[in-house]
Description:
The chain has four domains: 3-36 and 52-86 and 498-533, no CATH class; 89-205 and 470-493, Rossmann fold; 208-279, no CATH class; 283-450, Rossmann fold, CATH 3.40.50. The chain contains 13 helices and 26 strands. The protein has helices at 9-16, 20-28, 42-45, 60-77, 107-119, 136-139, 142-147, 159-169, 294-306, 343-350, 439-450, 472-475, 503-533, and strands spanning 3-6, 80-84, 89-90, 94-97, 123-126, 175-179, 197-201, 208-218, 221-230, 233-242, 248-249, 259-261, 267-270, 273-279, 283-289, 315-319, 332-336, 354-358, 364-369, 384-388, 398-402, 408-415, 418-423, 477-479, 492-493, 498-501. It has a seven-stranded mixed beta sheet, with no helix packed on it. Strands 16-15-17-18-23-22-21 form a seven-stranded mixed beta sheet, with helices on both faces. Helix 1 runs antiparallel to helix 4. The longest helix has 31 residues, at 503-533. The radius of gyration is 41 Å and the shape is elongated.
Amino acid sequence: MPTILLSDAAAGWLALLALAVPVAIHLWNRRPGRTVPMGSVRWLQAAANRRLRNLRLEQLALLLLRAAIVGLVALALAGPQWQQQRPARPVRGLVLLAPEVLHPEVLPSLRPTLDSLRRRGYELRQFAPNFRPISAAAWQQPDSLALLRPTTGAAPDDYWLRARQAADSFPGRPLRVLSGAALPHFRGARPTLPARLSWQTVTLPDSSTWLAQAGQFSPDSLRLLVGSSQEEGTTFRMVRLARPRSNGPLAVAGLAGLRYQAGNPARLQQDGQPEVVVQTEPLRVVLYADSRHAVAARYLRAALQAVTPGLARPLEIRTVTPAADLSASPDWLLWLSDDPVPAAWLARARQGGHLWQETAAAGVPVATHLHLAGLLPDAAAPVEVLRLDTSRVPASQVVVWQTGAGQPVLLREPAGRGSRYLLRTHLQPAATSLPETAALPTLLLHLLRTESADAPLFAARPAPGERRRLDARQLGAAPWQPVSRLPAQGRRQLPPPVLVDVRAWVVLAALLLFALERGLAYRRSVVSPTLATA
């Protein structure tokens, strides 16, 4: 049913006060009576000026007409709008397809169910920027769908952010996201999503293999670090092979189409993958430790020497003084002292180096373990944390290692082109069991690999080819269901009402009444003198 709304009711109410004006005019301006000849003036003295004592309304029709004009003007000032509710329409559900779902090995098994959903009124769109619709013509052509997939090597899309955008872009519509659960697409904490958005996961190809790093240990040999990612985790293997004398293919299991391109520096190329530069310089590490941190320095040096076989290039470790010459551009700077870090070390970190420090705080006693899920195999021995710096973590720092209770253990902060690491405990048996376990070399190896200049990995972002899956409980997702178990499109939704501004019509009505009022007033002014002279 249509409804009249007022956009500025306060102005209308104030304008209604003007109704007192025509009422006052009518009370004061009474119509003059007829002139009657009198024989004596004394008969008029008893009726001397009774105007104020005998006020009464006259010309009631004209008064009501003028009041109506004032009322219409007040209504126009209040901004009247005519609200009309449109008829309810069926709510069309939306299925958002992630790019990996359009893979030729994945989509055929889902097509029958998606076709049934389309016939039941569901709309298909891409789960990608702009949420472009998938037309019926494109849906029937697999080649067209293949063009919708992102280029290989592109940065993984953030699905948390994309889901939030979808909920805001399609208010009131049921949303069903269909995607994989690969870890690179889910960065940061899970946002709050509306209940009308549900997530369903599909099974993707089991694994992927990519070239992570390449180094030249000697003039006639190469070392290739090959990554392999599955749902259970990511592993690396080292491949050693002879260096080709000229451009040509390289035979490496799992890396089809790998080619060697000679040059300075040499490069390794693979179809659809970013090229990898063959590193010829060693991985340079400088270490300074005062007497208080001598024990931690021994543990660090031993752990670094233990990981040398897992690196694609040689490792060079030097023990230096705070005033050491850093012109050789070391890749890692290990500062084990409570003294301030020298300016030259900080400058090198901003130029692309990576600075490692331990907290200067003694830490508070804790009884917890290092959370190693995704970093070490499940069978790894637990790492105890006995003392920990529990001060507030700045927003600019990212947690790399943490305890099972979520307390930060190792923080990373960007610094120019490099980074700074802060260990919030001490590499001593009294603070943690990490130095006495095999976990320390493995964790350091992961850092050396992910912070290498030629690695497609970073500590805060998984590799594009990584296949580890996010836990279903974090995602809040369910496996892909057959269409028989999905809800039908039976619900109807009222669209937003239509608001029409009727101010012009109100003003027009007021003008018409004003013209009528002027006509009546003129007619009465002509009749009154006639009656007075009768």
